[in-house]
């Protein structure tokens, strides 16, 4: 589905153009470049998912003595900073085989799950999180917040699973 949307927005030869760039050739032909970039991508994901998981687990009721707002202020910069590793590294890995990645159902699912996780996070912050003062410390989060937190954890586990399965797809 994502490939169909992308192909309607970009010319059919866009993947061939990407694959023909010197950067793509270096990613394919360099002995150490792809593994190095992949390691950076994984480290970034560990930071992102670690920060998200700690926050989500707090919302789900773990460590109720920790203020939700303070935890969020501490973890959000780590999550955002991790994107500085994840996004460029992901784009570099994509350049190595753009046509194969674009047509791969597992890769498409990974992108869809990332989009869903982003939408879920935005809905959480624009919705139920606005009332966090009522459940910041010592109180249970409202059901809506817990649903967002559980969905977040499930979506990110799905993203990790898809990323790992790409090696076998």
Explain what the structure shows.
- Keywords: Membrane, Transmembrane, Transmembrane helix.
- There is one protein chain.
- It is built from eight helices and no strands.
- With 169 residues, the chain is an all-alpha fold.
- Helix 4 runs antiparallel to helix 8.
Structural class: mainly alpha
Biggest sheet statistics: none
Overall strand count: 0
Per DSSP, what share of the residues sits in E-state strands of 2 or more residues?
Answer: under 5%
Write the H/E string, N to C. HHHHHHHH
Number of domains: 1
Which segments are poorly predicted (pLDDT under 50) over 5 or more consecutive residues?
none
Number of DSSP helices?
8
> How much is the radius of gyration in Å?
19 Å
Mean pLDDT equals: 93
Helical content band: over 70%
Shape: elongated
Q: Report the span from N to C terminus.
A: 17 Å
Protein name: DUF2214 domain-containing protein
Transmembrane segments: 31-55, 75-95, 107-128, 149-167
Keywords: Membrane, Transmembrane, Transmembrane helix
